[in-house]
Amino acid sequence: MKNKIKVTVWNENRHETHDGIIRKKRAGDDACRMHYPQGMHAAIKAALDLDGSFEVDCAWLDKDDEHGLSEEVLANTDVLFWWGHCAHGEVKDEVVDRIQKRVLEGMGLVVIHSGHKSKIFMRLMGTSCDLLYRVAAEKERVWVVEKAHPIAEGLPAYFELPHTEMYGERFEIPAPKDTVFISWYEGGEVFRSGLTFERGYGRIFYFAPGHEAYPIFHDKNVQRVLCNAAKWCAPRYRSSYGCKCMEPLEELKSRGE
């Protein structure tokens, strides 16, 4: 029997619940709690569980002092999902360092929607990751532009989300390895909405749909994308991170100072 892919779904979990933290209420919080009463991470986990290929755990910002992402948790994670929005700055730098190291060693990373401004995604991209946006509950048409890519497996030529947040170009990122999806929005903009990258031995997938105020993670095509992405991002090879002193393979006849 093939081993299941170990996935950790990380969600900021601030829009869904206050978690005892006094903060200003944000637009979309009520809708988020209505669509995701147990949190967006629970909806993503449910979709992955239905596929049957994954062993899924969840973590969130206020789970513990390490945001639920201890060395032990990450050591047992093949693919990390990341959703964040209003509290990017609260993620500890030492946790970001830890995740970056694991990606370079081979762990996969799936970054969703407003996770484009997360510390870890900007760190791995090396750019601002800025974009245009508009919240107007408009239609999004997601076009599959690389139909042979594993992340597009089982999808139609396009699918539509009736209500979403617009993300527009220019998306300030380095050139991706693959552009799997491009979205068109009702207001006229287009956006590179499904992108792959490789850093070290790790694979990264960015997926733009996933605004907290709309039931996007309940959409069957979105769920298929997330399952496919987890499979594509799963480690192919793992290596320890860091420079290593190498002994010569052949006898050295002369040595410099």
Write the topology of this structure.
Elements lengths: L4 E7 L17 H7 L4 H12 L2 E7 L10 H5 L3 E5 L9 H13 L2 E5 L6 H7 L6 E13 L13 E11 L9 E8 L4 E10 L2 E6 L12 H14 L24
Parallel strand pairs: 1-2, 1-3, 3-4, 4-9
Antiparallel strand pairs: 5-6, 5-7, 7-8, 8-9
Q: How would you characterize the overall build of this protein?
A:
This protein has 257 residues and is of the alpha/beta class. The chain has a domain at 5-126 and 193-233: Class I glutamine amidotransferase (GATase) domain (Rossmann fold, 3-Layer(aba) Sandwich). Helix content is 23%, strand content 28%. It has 6 helices and 9 strands. It has a 9-stranded mixed beta sheet. β8 (190-199) and β9 (202-207) form a beta hairpin. α2 (40-51) crosses α6 and α4 packs across α5. The longest helix is centred in the last third of the chain and has 14 residues, at 220-233. The protein starts with a strand and ends in a 24-residue tail after the last helix. The relative contact order is 0.17.
Number of helices: 6
Radius of gyration of CA atoms, rounded to a whole number: 19 Å
Mean pLDDT: 93
The strand count comes to 9
Structural class: alpha/beta
Largest sheet: 9 strands, mixed
Summed up:
By secondary structure, this protein is an alpha/beta fold. It is built from six helices and nine strands; from the N terminus they run βααβαβαβαβββββα. Helices cover 23% and strands 28% of the residues.
